[in-house]
Design brief:
The complex is a heterodimer of chains A (about 160) and B (about 80). In chain A, the strands form three sheets. Chain A has a four-stranded mixed beta sheet, with helices on both faces. Chain A has a four-stranded antiparallel beta sheet with strand order 7-5-9-10, with no helix packed on it. In chain A, strands 3-4 form a two-stranded antiparallel ribbon. In chain A, α2 runs antiparallel to α3 (about 100-120) and α3 (about 100-120) crosses α4. Chain A is an alpha+beta fold and about 160 residues long. Chain A is built from four helices and ten strands, in the order βαββββαβββαββα. By secondary structure, chain B is α+β, with helices and mostly antiparallel strands. In chain B, the strands form two sheets. A five-stranded mixed beta sheet of chain B has the order 2-1-7-4-5. In chain B, β4 and β5 form a beta hairpin. Classes of the chains: A alpha+beta (about 160), B alpha+beta (about 80). The interface of A and B includes residues 51, 81, 93 and 121 of A.
Chain lengths: ~160, ~80
C-alpha cells in the first residue's frame, strides 16, 4: 500500500504499472484521477491551493484503505494526493486499486475516493477574478460516502 | 496542563493563528470545553468557534467529538469540513 502527499505531479502510467507489479493474482487494476476544473460554482478558477493536516492526512487515508481491504479483495493500492498551488487541468489525486477481479477493484477505488473526500483533512482555496475563497463542503459528497454504509451487494466474481 | 492547538484553512485565516500552546486548568478537559474557552476570547475567536459553527475536531490526529477527553501534551486540531479529492 502506498500513500503519498506531495507537491509534484505524478505519472499515472507508471503508477498503474507499478501497483502490485509482477503479482500473478492481480486480474484487475482500477484507477481514478481527479483534475482541477476551470469553473466551480459559476466562477472561473485561476488557481486552486490545497492545504492539509500533515500526519493526520496520511493516517486517515491509511484507515480508509484498511476499511476497503476489509470489504473487498484489495491486493495492493496506491493513493497520491497533491498539495500546494494547482491550475486548471492539473492532476490533484490518483487512486489505483489492484484486485483479483474488476468488481472489487472498481468498488474499492470508488469507496476510497468517496471516503477520502469526506474524511481526509484537505482543504481547497480557489482564486477567481473576485479573489480567494475557501471551497465549501458539499452535501452530495457526504451522500456519496454515506451510501457505503448501506448493505452492499457482493461484486460479481467475473472479469 | 499544556496542550497544543492547531487551526486549519478558513478557520486558521479567521483567527489569524496556525498553532499555539495553551495552558488549561486541571489534569483533563474536553474538546467542547477547550472550544468554549477559545470562543470566550471574543472577536474573531467567538464568531469562528461559536456553538453552531460547523467545525470538525481531532485529538492526536483522530477525529473526535466535543465530549472527547483531552490530556496534557495532546494535540487538538479544529478545522472546517474537509474538501479534498
Amino acid at each position: 500500500m502506498k500513500i503519498v502527499i506531495q507537491r509534484e505531479d505524478f505519472d499515472c502510467g507508471a503508477e498503474i504499472e507499478s501497483v502490485a507489479a509482477g503479482n500473478p493474482k492481480v486480474g484487475a487494476v482500477a484507477s481514478f484521477v481527479g483534475l482541477v476544473r476551470d469553473v466551480n460554482d459559476d466562477a472561473a478558477v485561476r488557481t486552486m491551493t490545497l492545504e492539509h493536516y500533515p500526519g493526520m492526512t496520511e493516517r486517515e487515508i491509511a484507515k480508509i484503505v484498511e476499511e476497503a481491504r476489509g470489504r473487498w479483495d484489495v491486493i495492493d493500492c496506491t493513493v497520491i494526493h497533491r498539495i500546494g498551488e494547482l491550475r486548471p487541468t492539473d492532476r490533484v489525486v490518483l487512486v489505483t486499486v489492484a484486485s483479483g477481479h474488476r468488481g472489487d477493484a472498481f468498488a474499492a477505488c470508488e469507496f476510497i475516493m468517496d471516503y477520502l473526500k469526506t474524511r481526509a483533512p484537505f482543504w481547497k482555496k480557489e482564486k477567481t477574478a473576485e479573489g480567494g475563497r475557501w471551497v465549501e463542503a458539499r452535501a452530495s459528497d457526504d451522500e456519496a460516502a454515506g451510501r457505503w454504509r448501506e448493505p452492499i451487494a457482493e461484486p460479481k466474481k467475473v472479469g | 496542563m499544556k496542550v497544543r492547538v492547531l487551526f486549519f484553512a478558513a478557520l486558521r485565516e479567521q483567527v489569524g493563528v496556525g498553532s499555539e500552546e495553551i495552558e488549561l486548568p486541571g489534569d483533563a478537559s474536553t474538546v467542547g470545553a477547550l472550544r468554549e474557552r477559545l470562543a470566550s476570547r471574543g472577536g474573531e475567536w467567538r464568531s469562528a468557534l461559536a456553538e453552531g459553527k460547523l467545525l470538525r475536531c481531532a485529538v492526536n490526529q483522530d477525529i473526535a467529538s466535543s465530549s472527547a477527553t483531552i490530556q496534557a501534551g495532546d494535540e487538538v486540531a479544529f478545522f472546517p469540513p474537509v474538501t479534498g479529492g
